[in-house]
Amino acid sequence: MDSTGNVGYYPSVALDSNGKVHISHQDISDYHLRYCNNTASDGSWSCANVTTGGGSIYVGAGSSIAIDSADKVHIFSI
């Protein structure tokens, strides 16, 4: 799913109303909060940094992801 850097730490997972997967997690190689989903029509995965700059070991640690009734993604992290 995500292979850029040293990723996948402290994951949080949520499903939307279509059964698509949404994941937030930490990249510890440069301390970014990352977001991944498989919402593409072919089910392929897409991942991106949510934060910029990095530099703090706390960025992305302990994130929590939720999907609201309109399928909007909400991510909280310390």
Structure description:
With 78 residues, this protein is mainly β. Helix content is 0%, strand content 41%. The two termini are 24 Å apart.
Number of helices in the DSSP assignment = 0
The count of DSSP E runs of length 2 or more, i.e. the number of strands, is 6
Give the CA-CA distance, first to last residue. Answer: 24 Å
Rg (C-alpha, Å): 12 Å
Structural class of the helix and strand makeup? mainly beta
Write the layout of secondary structure elements.
Blueprint: E1 9-15, E2 21-27, E3 32-37, E4 46-49, E5 64-67, E6 73-76
Antiparallel strand pairs: 1-2, 2-3, 3-4, 5-6
List keywords for this structure.
two-stranded antiparallel sheet, 41% strand, mainly beta, 78 residues, single chain, globular, four-stranded antiparallel sheet
Quick gist of this model?
The chain has no helices and six strands. It is mainly beta and 78 residues long.
